[in-house]
Amino acid sequence: MEETFHIDTVCHSGRPSDPRSAKETACYDLLDSLGIAYERVDHDAAMTMELCHAAEGVLHISICKNLFLCNRQKTKFYLLLMPGGKPFHTKDLSAQLGCARLSFGPPEDMERLLGVTPGSATVLALQNDTAGEVTLVIDRAVLQAPCFGCHPCINTSSLAFSMQDLTEKLLPALGHAPVLVDLPEDSNA
């Protein structure tokens, strides 16, 4: 039997009034301190892009995939932001980054470096990477949208804010200049 995904159908402006975890609250604190206006919707844990589609409908945005990756030696780590509907093929990204054998990073490294668990990777988690060990990689297609959608370090809420605020306020404040790549729609492209 298929489980039901519950989502608040109301789009809220700004931070929630009820208590949240420290890591989620830190995201709201960061956005508020930067003067970034955001919309929010709460929902059950969204572990897949398919479940994120419900949040996209309420927020009227597209939520991008956030993939935590590493090289074979587990000495270089990457957070890739790419369109949610685009397929991911490691060879396409590896070639553009000039590294071999990228794979998904281990959950324990994601938690150690970004302070989040699988399903909750987000650009906002880069505030926890104070040593700058994670390289932010953005598919240029993400930057074409007027708004940006992500989780606030937990996959039970989704946020939307302007792309301009992402590029002009948030990324500079995080201190992670992105590496821009062009991932194909199809691996044969």
From TrEMBL:
<dbReference type="Pfam" id="PF04073">
    <property type="entry name" value="tRNA_edit"/>
</dbReference>
<dbReference type="InterPro" id="IPR040285">
    <property type="entry name" value="ProX/PRXD1"/>
</dbReference>
<dbReference type="InterPro" id="IPR007214">
    <property type="entry name" value="YbaK/aa-tRNA-synth-assoc-dom"/>
</dbReference>
<comment type="similarity">
    <text>Belongs to the PRORSD1 family.</text>
</comment>
<feature type="domain" description="YbaK/aminoacyl-tRNA synthetase-associated">
    <location>
        <begin position="43"/>
        <end position="167"/>
    </location>
</feature>
<dbReference type="InterPro" id="IPR036754">
    <property type="entry name" value="YbaK/aa-tRNA-synt-asso_dom_sf"/>
</dbReference>
<protein>
    <submittedName>
        <fullName>Prolyl-tRNA synthetase associated domain-containing protein</fullName>
    </submittedName>
</protein>
